[in-house]
Structure formats: structure tokens, C-alpha cells
Amino acid sequence: MLTRKQHELLSFIHERLEDTGISPSFEEMKEALNLKSKSGIHRLITALEERGFIRRLPHRARALEVLKLPDASGQPPSDPASNVVAPDFAKSRRESLRSAVTDGVVDVPLYGAIAAGTPIEALQNNDRSVGYPAGMLSSREHYALEVSGDSMIDAGIHDGDTVIIERCDTADNGSIVVALVDDQEATLKKLRRKGHSIALEAANPAYETRIFGPDQVKIQGRLVGLMRQY
Q1: What is the pTM of this model?
Q2: Which of 5, 23, 92, 189 is catalytic?
Q3: Where are the beta strands (DSSP E) in 87-209?
Q4: Which of 100, 126, 223, 227 counts the most CB atoms within 10 A of its CB?
Q5: pLDDT digits (tens, 9 = 90+) for 62-85
Q6: Is 190 a catalytic residue?
Q7: Which residues, listed in sequence order, are joined to residue 47 by a DSSP beta bridge?
Q8: Is 218 annotated in the active site?
Q9: What's the angle, vertex CA 74, arms to CA 61 and CA 62, rounded to 5?
Q10: How far apart are CA 33 and CA 43, in angstroms?
Q11: What is the pLDDT of residue 162?
Q12: Which residue out of 92, 96, 148, 151 is catalytically annotated?
């Protein structure tokens, strides 16, 4: 599922190619989406490329090709605020206290999908849960997220995996964390602090490390477990 901004950008590129046969410039994309900088456009294009909606044509400036358009299930959410991972942890704790532990397994609320590639908005879903061994969890609050993307594959985290996250607002260098960027985009990355900057590192050489200011990144939890279906 595409985020609202990804959907808007894909539609804009598609319409421009249909009308003129030429891809819009980054400046035109920035103005069309009312973004403050071209770096936001770069992130959106990379996310669309990773998800197979567009591809960059080699050896040609500003050359993009639309490979597919989203179906009905890929329409943008009606409420932009629902795009950001903002779990009600107080509610989560109450639910956890009420939940029954059967055969040593506890229900962990599943809050939706998170990108392990370029940051994308994570979609919250409070109606689902996954079972996880209670003995492998601390007494703190936990939630689960489905992984979309392959940028953490060298850390053993694959596309389609479910990760178990312990809620926290700080983490040690080298920890794999859920990071909220600019209060909009959530991503699963390795945390590195470098002076006054925060680096979010992928575990795949095909992806670049992204550097942010200290006020741009909020830690929402750290990885403590992983589930995979074969």
C-alpha cells in the first residue's frame, strides 16, 4: 500500500508522462506536492522504485518510467494522521495486562507494516495481534510490525518478516530501532549517533546511510524478536 505522498507523486509523474512524454523535474515534483525540499522527493522516488512502481532509466537525466499503478487497495488513506506509527502505548499496556497467556504465549498487538528500505509511513492497525513466547519478552510494553523491503537483509531481517519491538525512546548505538523521521515516516534501521547527527544505517550495501539532525528522529522502540513463516 502506498502512502498519500507516494500516491500523489506517482500520479503526478504518470500524468506528466502521458501528457508530454517527459518526466517532471525534481523542482516541479517538489512544487506539485508542496514539499519544502527536494530530499523529500528523492525519498519518495526511491520508495516507489523499491516497490516496483517506477524505474529510473539509465544514462538519461530526469528519466523515469511508470511500471504500474496501484489498484484499489493501493489508494492513499483518507486520514493522513493515520499513516504515522503512533501506538497508544497506555492502551497497549492495558490490553497486555488483560490478555491471557496461553501455553506461555502472549498476544502482541500488530500495528501494521514498516519499511526496511527507504523510510515510508507505517500503517497502524489495532485490530490484529501475533502470538509470541512470553518468556522471551521483558516486562516492558511491546508491539509487532510487518517488514516491507530488503535493506536489513544482512541483519537477517527479510521482506515479509514480523518483528517484535520493545517500546523505548532511546537506544544504544548499533541497536536496530523503529525510528520516526520528521514525525511522518517510520523506518526500521540500525542506529548510529555521530556528534550531533543521527545516522540510520541499512544492513544491505545497496542502500545508503541517511543522516538526520537530532530533532528529526524519534526512537519508538528497539528490535527484540523476529518471526518468519516458511
Answers
A1: 0.57
A2: 189
A3: 105-115, 128-133, 142-148, 162-166, 176-181, 185-194, 197-201
A4: 223
A5: 688 899 887 644 454 444 433 444
A6: no
A7: none
A8: no
A9: 5
A10: 13
A11: 93
A12: 151
